[in-house]
Structure prediction request, 382 residues.
Amino acid sequence: MATTPTPSGPRPGAPPGPLTGFTIGVTAARRRDELVALLTRRGAQVVEAPVLRITPLADDLALRRATERCLAAPLDYVVATTGVGWRGWMSAAEGWGRGAALADACRDALVLSRGPKATGAVRASGLDEEFSPRSEATDELLTWLLARPLAGRRVAVQEHGVRLDAFSAALRERGAEVISVPVYRWAAPDDPAPVRRLVEQTVRRQIHALTFTSAPAVTAFVETATAEGLREPLLDALRGDVLPVCVGALCARPFAELGLPVVFPERGRLGALVRFLGETLPGRDRRELTLAGRLLTLQGNAVLVDGESHWLSPRGAAVLRALAEQPGRVLSRADLLRTVWVGSAADEHAVEAAVGRLRAALGPHGGLIRTVPKRGYRLAAG
Prediction:
């Protein structure tokens, strides 16, 4: 039976960071280790579940045929959609002894790059781009091309994991010869179980934020929820308690089409995404209060006592948050059941056990949670 993996987290004894207490889902495959390191360095716990993987074409015959078509006659336009795809194409051509010829063919054409990563790869291969849209959207590339005479023009389109059939069809309707260049494809992960578990954790609100670095990953994540019969519960969680964060506007488009309030940083970079989370999540789920002369900061699933962090279970954090609504006020076991165990078939013994674990997690500060005989629990006020 598959088990839920232990989330990646900050090293024991690490000082609190802006993301201490927050559990963040990482759906990326490429540069996943880098993103996880950036998040844990800021205090987050991370649940890793690559939704898609990039796979080279099982047979590079299609790529080689496309390349030979590009070299058979002069190209007018070349479209670079991703940095990894462009580099893969140039590398493959070099391996066939056709690298110099392909570079010359692209140099004689107008090169369009979809965004900064594609632009960087184009420049690294010794070429210059004619146009790159600020939106990083394929639609804007198409608009730019359709504003030019295309009848009889030859256009090479480096695809980015999925076929660009509509893009190519629009060019062909204007009389262009389009050469699709497939370098890699998005594929399902080798083990889909972590993705299913991440969907379930999101629905149960055990995740505070989900990060996405590509639009196909967003679509695949929602499709996984649909296959599990959890589409609507997932979307409900993403409308409220769980924050979906994308690396940029293009990545966020599938969420926007679903009417979800997705957010993204101004710059489409992993570092910017992590900084954005560090600025955004505490504002959604942070509360400070003074108890028995001590400063407590409730943040996600952690409590900071005089600056020292204590990670709690999601249930324990919910119990502490409920008690902190009115410090000093007694909440009965029935009150906590109604507030924290919504929809669960739990009894008062579950409350007693959760409070015991919460006190243990708080260590020397566990005494801040007081038992009021025959009535319930309260936080030490004052």
